[in-house]
């Protein structure tokens, strides 16, 4: 467990997973073991969304890749690169066409192994600054590699009527619950604020969109995404790809308590 501290802010990171973010002992992150989700955060890469109705195949310029829901990055293990009192860096590396054990097999998937036809490295960097936690995702890989990226954090909900606010509208938890597993789409948005017992804002850079998901009333996932996958047929997921250039791609998320 890595601990970050700055004044009255405290962060706990377990093998690259953000498991706690507190200010004055108030917990903003959904806790494992409570109803809703078995995790507290994860990344969706190199694809976002389900693939079961496409026979777990995603079209790429190098042929079809075997991918389960939200990609294979979550099946890899982060290695800690460095840490200080206020920052930490974790990294995952993947070699093209390496078979990765699928944790959803056999209970929820017919595919025992997943693979991707490109090399890549994926860094996740945490930095505490005044009243904020900045999380950066740094992708390096082969030029021309297609990908999507989504960050999937879950936030603690402690009031009976929390409100999710965007620049153009307010969204209740009931509206998110009504959408179900597809996730509520918030297009063309870079900032969302969760007004609960305490308030936290989630600002993103590079993603462009959000989606919201929960199946319970004690947590909500507020997810910056580069593409909303439920807008297309699963066989057409590739239409949502971005393309890696000849330099690294950097995406940012800031959890702001101001």
From TrEMBL:
Pfam families membership: Aldose_epim
A GO biological-process term: carbohydrate metabolic process
Keyword terms of this UniProt record: Calcium
InterPro entries: Aldose_1/G6P_1-epimerase, Gal_mutarotase_sf_dom, GH-type_carb-bd
Protein's name in the database: Aldose 1-epimerase
Any one GO MF annotation of this record: carbohydrate binding
Organism encoding this protein: Leeuwenhoekiella aequorea
Cofactors, names only: Ca(2+)
Calcium among keywords: yes
Keyword Calcium: yes
Segment forming the signal sequence: none
Subunit structure comment from the entry: Monomer.
Coiled-coil ranges (or none): none
